[in-house]
Amino acid sequence: LLNSPRRLNTLLKKEIEADAKEFGDERRSPIRPQEEAKVVNEQDMLPSEPVTIVLSEMGWVRSAKGHEIDPSTMSYRAGDSYHSAVRGMS
């Protein structure tokens, strides 16, 4: 039985159906057939948003949402300042 995944699945299915028939009711958790799983593209799940990546003189990298950012006015650590920035999409 353990060597045959098909037989094991059949046994599990029969046991679950028997339990549902014996103990199941219409109260809260009916057992229903599951719909077939759908393939989802990861890119469809992640939003693509404009971002600005900023590099400081001391080598710190940070990102800010949007392209309307003026990186030279951002706050930096003591003794550090703006070096360069690039715009992209997340």
Automatic annotation (TrEMBL):
Give the first-level EC class, as a single word: isomerase
Q: What is this protein called?
A: DNA topoisomerase IV subunit A
Q: What is its EC number?
A: 5.99.1.-
* Keyword annotations from UniProtKB, A to Z: Isomerase
Q: Name one GO molecular function term.
A: isomerase activity
